[in-house]
Amino acid sequence: MIKLILDTNVLMSGIFWSGPPAKLLDAWQRGNIKLIISPEILDEYVRVADLLSMKYPGVDVTPIIDLITVHSILFMPEKLPEPVSQDPDDDKFIATAIAANCKLIVSGDKDLLNVNGFNGINIIKPGSFISNYLAI
Question: How many angstroms separate the CA atoms of 26 and 42, rounded?
Answer without folding.
Answer: 19
